[in-house]
Every structure is written in structure tokens, then in C-alpha cells.
Amino acid sequence: MATGDMRLSVAHQTGFGLRLAAALSSPSSHFSSVNTVFSPLSIHVALSLLAAGAGGATRGQLLAALGGGDGPDAADSLHALAEQVAQLVLADGSEAGGPRVAFADAIFVDASLKLKPAFEHLAVGKYKAETWSVDFQKKAAEVAGQVNSWVEKVTLGLIKELLSRDSLDETTRLVLANALYFKGAWTEKFDESETRDSEFHLLDGSSVQAPFMSSRDDQYVRSSSDFKVLKLPYRKGVDKRQFSMYILLPEARDGLWSLAEKLSSEPEFLEKHIPMRDVPVGQFKVPKFKISFGFEASDLVKGLGLQLPFSPQAELTELVNLPAEQNLSVSSIFHKAFVEVNEEGTEAAAATAMRIVLCSYTPPVDFVADHPFLFLIREDTTGVVLFVGHVVNPLLPAY
What we know:
CATH class of the largest domain: Alpha Beta
CATH superfamily of the largest domain: Antithrombin, subunit I, domain 2
Largest sheet: 7 strands, antiparallel
Distance between the termini: 40 Å
Family: Belongs to the serpin family.
Number of domains: 2
GO molecular function, one term: serine-type endopeptidase inhibitor activity
CATH topology of the largest domain: Antithrombin, Chain I, domain 2
Radius of gyration: 21 Å
Protein name: Serpin domain-containing protein
Organism: Digitaria exilis
InterPro entries: Serpin_CS, Serpin_dom, Serpin_fam, Serpin_sf, Serpin_sf_1, Serpin_sf_2
Strand content: 25-35%
């Protein structure tokens, strides 16, 4: 894939992910009172793999939502992006001093069915997916445990139970799963002795005492009229990749939701506001936080225009060979993610499982993140966003 093509594909992928993030980070969301984190990349890859097994209008709808078009080259671009992201962005860099990164795909298919050769070839070749033949019809709970064990292994134990024992049943025919792990150390670590408790203002007007990290070093900060952006780079390895965390802090203590809307609705919003150089800082405080967040994503995905894969009219005809009178549709998208931010750096993980069933110089700048904010983890050379979330209270328990 040419560099320009990849940039465009990544832009579509990021746009899809940030629209999901806006649906999570809105005052009407069920999750407005809790801290959130999810991997738009993980969900996008799962849906891209589903598109490889779809036909007709269902395939067109998936391609339009995920890649920005449903022309003849759209599917090739989508699968090429998944391959490039796995090879270039999500390669482990820990041996060379960079972040530790792991990503894997898996397909669990009922033993009564065979994957269609073309789909299996693409899934194994482009997505590097492992395939497992399992017994959903008699041992669904055990298969859920098998999926969980696979996820736990890839995420180095951070995500232990993506699926509950009763999330699969005898109608399940396939599970498309992936898992992502990231652990990066800051380029400039925070001194633990400088961490102090301070006031964090909540959306309801009250406040809590939370531990804040601090530093006297210059920081990558960019100020706009109603928000600031902080870039915290992770230590690089020998390759060209540069992973960074971004904290988007509204000026108003209750400005989280409107900032989330801007991030998702304005093209190139993030690119336009990325800090390009480090500047002297005055007051500088960032809270430590740890978040574990899981949700069933199908309603949010439907809200982005993907209705057909979940309906009786779904055309998931390229996955497996089925008897003529039977049909498949997506019933659930289970997603879980974890992130911990401290003086050393960041550890994060995410997993997605899709259940498919039979139908039925400048003056010093202050950056004090003492009220709700957005954050994301991004690979800067490609623009790929790995994780997005919001913090409404850094003291909320992770589990």
C-alpha cells in the first residue's frame, strides 16, 4: 500500500473510531459517569474481517462505514490496511528499547462448519488469524473460556474475562476475536517524589483529592481558546515509530462533552492541534489513573449506520458453507480494554469478540488536568489511534 493510500485509509479508520468515541463520551451515554477506554483499532479490525466474509448490501454497508467507500478497491484497501497496521504499527519494539506491543486475530468456528477457502486464505494471509474448530452446540461455556484464555495470553493477563460463560450458546456459529497489548515508558519519566495529592473537580461540581504527577521539564503543549492539548511521547526504539499519549483538556470544568463532539465531527481536528514543539510550563499536573472498561458495542456500531450485519437480512455468505435454508447475522460485539498511566509510562490492552449466530517560547504555559478530560494513544508517523477514553474521576476503581 502506497504511503498516500495508507494515510487516507488511516484517516477513515480514525474517523470511524472517533465517532464511536463521541457516542461513548456524551452526556446522554450510559457511560457518562464512569471513566472509559476502548480501542477503536481493535473494533475496526474485527469489522474489517467481518467485511471479508460479507456479500451484497451488507458488504457495501461495512465498506462504506469502515473505509469511506464501497467501490471495487474499497475491500482491498481495508484488508491491506489491516495487514500494514499489524506489520508496521503493532510490531513489538521492546527488544530495541521501544514499547512492547502485541496484536493477534483469531477465528473460532463451530466444528459442524468449514470456513470458505477464500475467506480463510484472506484471514490467515492478511490478518494473520489463528483458526480454531470448536463445539458451540454442546460446549458453548467451555468455548467462552477458551476465547478468554487466548485473550488473556495475548494481553499478558490484563484482560482475563472478555466473555462471560453465558455470552455464547448453542446458536453461536463463529466468534471473530482480536486482542491488543501496549506498554510504553515515557521519554521523560515523572519523578515519583514529586507526585502530590491535589483537588480534581468532578462534573457534578464536587471534588476529590487525587494523586497528580508533576514535572519542571518543558512539555509539548498547545493552547487554543477553549482547550489545551498535551503530548507525552513514549521512548522510541530503533525504528521510525513514535507512540504518544495525548490529553485533551477543556478550559471549562464541564467542557468534556463538547470537546469530545469537536474531536469526532471536525475532520483533521487532532492533526490541527497536535503540539509540534516543547514549551516552558508553569504549573504542570497530570493525574495518575487506571481504567478497566467493558461494554457491548453493537448498539453504538448500529448508530454509525451499520444495521444490516445485525439483521435477518444480513448477507454473511462468504464466511462458511451453510445449508440453503440457514443464514448468519452478528448478535453481539463484546469489547474490553484496560489502561494504567503512572510515573513510568502506560500499560494498556484491549480485546474484541464478535458473536455470529444463526438468525433468529512563549511565556510558561500551565497545564493542570484537574477536571474531566479526553485521552488517546496514537502512533504518530502513521496517525493510527490505538486507544481512546475519558477520565471523569481518577479515583474510580479500575474494576
